[in-house]
Every structure is written in C-alpha cells, then in structure tokens.
From TrEMBL:
Transmembrane segments: none annotated. This is FMN-binding flavin reductase domain protein. Residues 21-165 form the Flavin reductase like domain. The keyword Cytoplasm does not apply. It comes from Streptomyces iranensis. SUPFAM superfamilies: FMN-binding split barrel.
Length: 206
C-alpha cells in the first residue's frame, strides 16, 4: 500500500520537508563568498551537483535570497568547499542566520586560506575546494539556481590514491531529512556493464 501526497493541497513547506526526506543523501556545497563590504560569507547548501563537464560547471540552489546568493550576484565569484566529517559542527553552525555582513568564518572560527583565481577564500580545513566564476543564474519560484564554471580546483594530496580522490579519505558529509546528516558507510564498487558484454548477463548474473 502506498500513501499519496499532493503538493498543491499540502503547501510548500510540508512538501519541501517531504522532498528533503526522500531525496537523500544530498552532497553539501559549503559555499564561500565575499560581500560588497568585504566580509567573507560561508554557508552550506545541500541542493548541489555537477551541471556540466565541458566546460566544468557546478550548481547550487539558494532557497530564498540568502547572503550567498546576494554576494554571488554582486561579485560573480564563489568557492565550493567540501564539507568534511571532521568539521561537522562548524558546517552546521555556518547555517545559523547571522545578520547580513557578519562573517561566518569569524563567528564560527573556521580557518580560511586565500584562493588562487577568485577573491572568496577557501576553507583551510576542507580537503577539496572548487573556485568558481558565475556562469549564469536561474530563478525558479522562491529559489535561484546558481551555475558556476570551475576555474581552479585544489585537493589535499593525502586523500588521493592513484590519481583518484578516495571517498573513505575525503569523509564527506551529506544531508538527509529533518536534522539528520549522513556520513560515509559501506562503499559498494561495481563497474558498469558494456552492451557488448551484456548478452547472457542480467543484473543477477553480473
């Protein structure tokens, strides 16, 4: 038996809570920006993914008009920092609704380092940072999708294995429903099946 949910009758907030409880886990873009006044802003956004490969473009969604979005629109630059398990409490704390102009780096005590290609700083304790310039933005209802072209990336050498960023060393956080967060559990490794090799191999035989 299934339960039906109608977004029109439920309203946006209850249905938003439903969506975030079933679209899981969601990777976190820990977005750093700089405001016109010079304050460095840092906030987690869990509506985040890769948008394109060539050129490399990532995207995150601002639900409402938050400082990250205002700063991106004003300056055209931002950095996506990986949200690592070891900085769990700091990641959560930077979601606090600090007044406009307050730097989350300073308020929460997150160490920053200079970026190479853009003005917003990187999170020094994050193993991965993607420096981005704004490609475009798209308004959808009460939200804005920000597309950023990656102009530079840095990765800690200690998380690299044979030229590959190893997830068990990255230890990325993810968002689940309610106040729940996810960490890396069991990792399954299964290669895709080429069509040339498919005959006689269903999923149960792979």
């Amino acid at each position: 038996m299934r339960i039906d949910f109608d977004p029109e009758t439920m309203g946006s907030t209850p249905f938003y809570k439903l969506l975030t409880s079933v679209i899981v886990p969601r990777p976190i873009a820990w977005v750093s920006t700089v405001g016109q006044g010079g304050a460095a802003n840092l906030a987690p956004h869990s509506f985040f993914t890769v948008a394109a490969v060539a050129p490399p473009v990532v995207q995150f969604t601002s639900v409402g008009r938050k400082d990250s979005l205002r700063n991106v629109e004003d300056t055209g630059e931002f950095v996506v920092n990986l949200a690592p398990e070891g900085l769990f409490e700091q990641v959560n704390a930077t979601a606090t609704d600090f007044p406009h102009g307050v730097s989350e780096f300073e308020a929460v005590g997150v160490e920053q380092e200079a970026s190479l290609r853009v003005k917003p700083p990187r999170v020094a304790g994050s193993p991965v940072a993607l420096e981005c310039v704004v490609h475009s933005t798209m308004g959808l209802g009460n939200s804005t999708v920000v597309f950023g072209r990656v102009v530079h990336a840095v990765i800690d050498d200690e998380v690299m294995v044979d030229g590959h960023a190893e997830v068990t060393r990255l230890r990325p956080l993810s968002r689940l429903g309610k106040n729940e967060w996810g960490t890396v559990g069991e990792v399954l490794d299964l290669a895709r099946i080429r069509y040339a090799d498919w005959e006689g191999r269903g999923p149960e035989k792979a």
